[in-house]
Design a protein that fits this description.
Largest sheet: 2 strands, parallel
Number of strands: 2
Strand order of the largest sheet: 1-2
Number of domains: 2
Helix content: 40-55%
Strand content: 5-15%
Order of helices and strands: HHHEHEHHHH
CATH superfamily of the largest domain: Nitrogenase molybdenum iron protein domain
Distance between the termini: 83 Å
Number of helices: 8
């Protein structure tokens, strides 16, 4: 902590750094297992792992926006020139999102097809789920659809 207190006044934009540290900064001294739990709970935008075997630790990190391995992989170098993406999840969104990727620009088309026999087989499950969600008309719409198909096929 002394190092940070001595370094901060020497930095450009020291007021912004000092305010950020006072609002968001902390030092945690803990076992590695607890550090991993803390990192996964915090879901940091950037996480620098500077240990003898950073890859071993990084395999246990599931929520960081970007994991930087080793003492020669600083965040600022990654932001600009190491080839990783600078658009990372913040505010703990790393729990459910990774960094921006080409997949964010693709439209995935989903389609599904069923049959009247399949609808009949899932009838009781559909009814139970629709009731649980208080959406009985969802069930009725499906039931009428396959009942209607049966009536048409008998008439035809």
């Amino acid at each position: 902590m002394d190092f940070i207190e001595k370094l901060t006044p020497t930095l450009q934009r020291k007021d912004i750094v000092a305010e950020s540290l006072s609002k968001n900064g902390f030092v945690a001294i803990c076992k590695m297992s607890d550090a991993i739990l803390l990192a996964n709970n915090l879901a940091p935008e950037h996480l620098e792992i500077m240990t003898r075997q950073p890859k071993t630790i990084s395999n246990k990190i599931k929520t960081a926006g970007l994991v930087l391995l080793g003492q020669n992989t600083p965040s600022a170098a990654s932001d600009y020139l190491l080839g990783t993406n600078h658009i990372l999840p913040t505010n703990r969104f790393g729990r459910s999102r990774g960094s921006l990727s080409v997949l964010d620009f693709l439209k995935i088309q989903t389609s599904v097809e069923s049959s009247k026999q399949a609808l009949k087989k899932i009838d009781k499950y559909l009814s139970a789920l629709a009731k649980a969600e208080s959406l009985p008309n969802h069930y009725e719409a499906v039931k009428k659809e396959y009942e209607h198909q049966v009536v048409l096929s008998k008439a035809g």
